[in-house]
Amino acid sequence: MHAVDTLIYEYPTNDCIRACLKLEPLLQQVQHFNTDCSKQHRQILLMHTDILNILDRPDLKAKLIQLIQQKHLDLTQLTSHQAVHQTRLMEYLKQLEQLSEQLSQKDSLCCLQDHPLIRAIRAHHSHPGGLSNFALPQLHQWLHQPTQDRQIDLEQMRQETALIHTVLNTVLTLIRNTRPFSQAEAQQGFFQTILDPSIPIHLIRIQTTLNTYPAISVGKHRLSIHFLSPETTPARPIESNLSFQWTYTY
């Protein structure tokens, strides 16, 4: 199965990883923006409000620290394995220790909730047309500031989210590389397997062809996947057998 002909789908199995996967594309975009366009700057502001809405959970910081510490413990158990690249392993262990300490020292995961413009956008964004010029004149005024001034504001916002971006990038990279993919076959578009409830699974990963997509159901003891065809309306499970790859990570 060639990667160019396939897609990888990911399904989180707990609230912490679900939040991480929601944050990941938003943080990637705000961390790597490079545009002078006021319309794009407006979109970046909206992404910051989405990031804050996800981060605005009192338990998320503690869960991320716990996840970092768990990955540190997992990697520590590999220090005696000769097949493991020890220098790279030590780098990861040190990075995890630093991230855990940095998160612990922060009062909140992000301080942008105190930014006047972001606060105003969050208050109006959920209402249809809430960001119109008459409803939010401060946004209208900001969008017509000189490009350099807007970029300075956005850079300050980017720096506020840099730590959480590094945390997510590090943790998700480690989780995704916990186990390799294995080959499987869906009989008439359906696959089911038994899960070990003693394994704390974080993520189900499925690699399949471009002309299907999976509908995934995960319980404590069982994983079920229906492969659907986007060419039917409504989408229906395919009726043929399908080879695919999958893995679970922890």
How would you describe this protein?
This protein has 250 residues and is α+β, with helices and mostly antiparallel strands. The protein has two domains: 15-175, YacF-like; 180-249, YacF-like domains (YacF-like), CATH 2.60.440.10. It contains eight helices and eight strands, in the order E-H-H-H-H-H-H-H-H-E-E-E-E-E-E-E. It has a four-stranded antiparallel sheet with strand order 1-4-8-2. Strands 3, 5, 6 and 7 form a four-stranded antiparallel sheet that branches. Strand 5 (213-218) and strand 6 form a beta hairpin. The two termini are 24 Å apart.
List keywords for this structure.
2 domains, alpha+beta, 250 residues, four-stranded antiparallel β-sheet, YacF-like, globular
Task: Provide a compact summary of the structure.
The protein folds into two domains: 15-175, YacF-like (Orthogonal Bundle), CATH 1.10.3900; 180-249, YacF-like, CATH 2.60.440.10. The protein is 47% helix and 19% strand.
Percent range for helical residues?
Answer: 40-55%
CATH topology of the largest domain: YacF-like
Strand fraction? 15-25%
What series of H and E elements makes up the topology? Answer: EHHHHHHHHEEEEEEE
Task: Give the rounded overall mean pLDDT.
Answer: 92
Shape type: globular
Strand order within the widest beta sheet: 1-4-8-2
